[in-house]
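Exercise 7. Given the encoded structure of a 323-residue chain, write a plausible sequence.
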């Protein structure tokens, strides 16, 4: 009888320890399996390049591997929907950007909404760089504007998707300069870049991490950087304002998880990414691709997103009123 009582007490003590805060650490361990970082665009663009670096550097900060998983299609919609309609265990993350997280959910009927995701961290923010094909009949932004005005509709540029961030950049440029240009949508930055490199289109606007080396090696002509100041890594490229068009536009990259993920897991992810952005190896790799670290923790990132979404909604409505 005494032996039985001791067993009962031991069983109760074990149960209580697992239920107590901190006592169930093993049962609540997170992440408990490899993390999946969903890349919603084809290979070769800014998101796949950054996704590879993030995945390579992440394991020490999460005690689990991170797998970069490309789910391209629909201009980012397939990948975003994959995360929005998936589970809430926190093991599947979205590498997001302005198009799929701020603009398109507001102006299109998509299978997901902006608030289907919880912001974990903004990692980067870079101004867009306007470039021209090596065989383009102009060498700078003023020459491009003159060509477009002299040949309405004949200047063809590489675009990502309708309402995408390259698409929006050229809409800003056309509005600012009063020009007519025609974009061909290739479904993502990788294919869009390939076509301007091949001379199939005359121009493109891309992230410094994607176009920087091509500019340095003469495969693309740099036109301008859409920011208030020149980029330190590409300081020979003038700002668009210096070159003749007062526009500012860029690309941020951030981490999201599905709405409904437990807060304790959201907090663990935030902690992991806060450590990642201080990792020397990660910073070295980011420097090699001319990427600009602009970390924001989840709550601050959410505030910036709300302001951006309102601004992009206003821009879209302005575009519609002109068309």
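Solution.
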């Amino acid at each position: 009888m005494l032996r039985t009582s001791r067993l009962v007490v031991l069983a109760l003590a074990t149960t209580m320890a697992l239920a107590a805060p901190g006592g169930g650490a093993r049962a609540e361990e997170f992440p408990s399996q490899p993390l999946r970082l969903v890349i919603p665009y084809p290979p070769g663009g800014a998101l796949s390049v950054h996704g590879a670096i993030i995945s390579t550097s992440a394991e020490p900060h999460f005690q689990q591997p991170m797998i970069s998983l490309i789910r391209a299609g629909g201009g980012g919609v397939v990948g975003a929907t994959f995360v929005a309609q998936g589970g809430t265990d926190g093991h599947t993350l979205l590498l997001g950007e302005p198009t799929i997280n701020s603009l398109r959910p507001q102006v299109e009927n998509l299978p997901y909404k902006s608030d289907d995701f919880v912001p974990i961290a903004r990692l980067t923010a870079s101004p867009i760089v306007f470039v021209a094909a090596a065989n383009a009949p102009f060498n700078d932004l003023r020459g491009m504007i003159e060509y477009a005005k002299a040949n309405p509709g004949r200047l063809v540029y590489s675009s990502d998707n309708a309402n995408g961030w390259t698409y929006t950049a050229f809409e800003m440029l056309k509005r600012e300069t009063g020009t007519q240009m025609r974009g061909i949508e290739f479904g993502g930055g990788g294919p869009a870049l390939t076509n301007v490199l091949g001379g199939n289109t005359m121009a493109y606007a891309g992230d410094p991490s994607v176009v920087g080396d091509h500019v340095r090696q003469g495969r693309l002509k740099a036109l301008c950087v859409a920011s208030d100041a020149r980029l330190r890594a590409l300081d020979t490229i003038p700002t668009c304002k210096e070159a003749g068009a007062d526009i500012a536009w860029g690309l941020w990259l951030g981490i999201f998880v599905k709405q409904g993920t437990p807060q304790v897991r959201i907090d663990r992810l935030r902690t992991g990414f806060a450590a990642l952005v201080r990792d020397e190896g990660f910073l070295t790799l980011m420097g090699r691709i001319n990427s600009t670290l602009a970390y924001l923790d989840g709550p601050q990132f959410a505030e910036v997103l709300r302001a951006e979404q309102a601004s992009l909604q206003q821009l879209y409505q302005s575009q519609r009123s002109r068309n």
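Remark. The two ends are 87 Å apart (CA to CA). Students should compare their own answers with the one above.
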